[in-house]
């Protein structure tokens, strides 16, 4: 067995151990604070599977999580700690709503034109931190966090000045025409055809990252920017297109969520999916193949915590404790590092013994 394979196994095991420890601690907290711990645990662990509607809630939440997780994976693989996914997700929804309301297109074309436009606008938003980083070495973490609020208020302004419905009784757009909305695919739930778009982007992102020269350049820049530069890779271009692609995926995610789950645009605040994408990317180890698993897991926890809060005396905030513990343990470089070191040494000794024998 190669040392690279051992390292891959170690990361998978480390993630599962972190999840197991976090879940165990959460269950202990429930046992200590709840007057009805058995009901709370049952609601939390089995509630999402207790009906087709509740399971549908998990899948519905998984769809935007997949897009935000993929967006963060692309940027983090290039070692660009860009948080613009939140703003790109929001403006993607605004842009898609504009196309949905202002243009009358055939049913088969309308939603995809709106989603594509949302992706383009999201990509332009992602371009800004990348350009600032390359041009003036501005920290992408700081610039993207600030730009999220620029996206929020600029998006609200554009929505209010172009597509706001004055008779809605709320801050929202006109109702989307049927031709612009994504179709529901499972009766009794709100699961929509955006699920297929999410699956498509999982495949496309993986192929881009691991089967193209641009993806290779992106990963090499993330591993060692100086080495990549001396190898002939244009690292400045990589920094820019990694964040453009991340913004594009997030924008498509926002557009898909709006057209699949809502009848009109009604986000008056940032939806939070961009920050959820960071949790998903950490759980998936920045690998697009693992993103749907991480997205489903997080959605399962959120829905389970919500059911538990409604059915018992345990608040849904317990999920925040689980998320925090998982992130801390996975981010801790020394967590289970001794076990990994012993495995590598043992593997090397076995290889040496085989050669000498």
TrEMBL record:
Subcellular localization, as worded in the UniProt entry: Cell membrane
Keyword Cell membrane in annotation: yes
Record flagged with keyword Membrane: yes
Top-level taxon of origin: Bacteria
Segments traversing the membrane: 12-34, 54-76, 88-105, 111-132, 141-159, 191-210, 238-259, 265-283, 290-312, 318-336
Membrane topology summary: Multi-pass membrane protein
A GO CC term attached to the entry: plasma membrane
Keywords: Cell membrane, Membrane, Sugar transport, Transmembrane, Transmembrane helix, Transport
GO molecular function terms attached to this record: transmembrane transporter activity
Protein name as it appears in the record: Simple sugar transport system permease protein
Species this chain originates from: Anaerovirgula multivorans
């Amino acid at each position: 067995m190669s040392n690279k394979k051992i390292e891959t196994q170690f990361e998978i095991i480390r993630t599962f151990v972190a999840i197991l420890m976090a879940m165990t601690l959460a269950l202990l907290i429930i046992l200590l604070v709840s007057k009805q711990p058995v009901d709370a645990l049952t609601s939390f662990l089995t509630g999402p599977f207790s009906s087709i509607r509740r399971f549908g809630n998990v899948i519905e939440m998984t769809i935007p999580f997949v897009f935000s997780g993929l967006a963060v994976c692309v940027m983090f693989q290039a070692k660009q700690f860009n948080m613009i996914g939140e703003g790109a997700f929001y403006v993607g929804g605004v842009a898609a709503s504009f196309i949905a309301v202002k243009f009358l297109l055939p049913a088969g074309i309308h939603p995809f034109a709106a989603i594509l436009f949302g992706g383009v606008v999201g990509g332009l938003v992602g371009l800004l931190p990348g350009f600032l980083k390359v041009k003036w070495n501005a920290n992408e973490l700081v610039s993207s966090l600030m730009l999220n609020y620029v996206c929020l208020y600029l998006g609200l302004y554009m929505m209010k000045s172009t597509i706001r419905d004055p008779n809605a009784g709320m801050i929202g757009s006109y109702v989307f025409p049927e031709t612009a909305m994504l179709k529901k695919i499972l009766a009794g739930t709100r699961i929509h055809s955006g699920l297929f778009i999410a699956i498509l982007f999982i495949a496309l992102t993986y192929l881009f990252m691991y089967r193209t020269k641009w993806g290779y350049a992106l990963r090499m820049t993330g591993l060692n920017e100086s080495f990549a530069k001396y190898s002939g890779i244009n690292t400045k271009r990589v920094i820019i297109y990694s964040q453009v692609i991340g913004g594009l995926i997030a924008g498509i995610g926002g557009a898909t969520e709006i057209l699949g789950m809502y009848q009109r645009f009604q986000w008056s605040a940032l939806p939070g999916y961009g920050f959820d994408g960071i949790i998903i990317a950490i759980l998936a180890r920045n690998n697009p193949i693992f993103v749907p698993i991480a997205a489903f897991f997080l959605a399962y926890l959120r829905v389970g915590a919500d059911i538990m809060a409604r059915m018992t005396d345990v608040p849904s905030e317990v999920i925040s404790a689980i998320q925090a513990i998982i992130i801390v343990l996975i981010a801790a470089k020394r967590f289970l590092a001794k076990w990994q070191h012993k495995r590598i040494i043992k593997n090397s000794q076995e290889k040496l013994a085989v050669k000498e024998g």
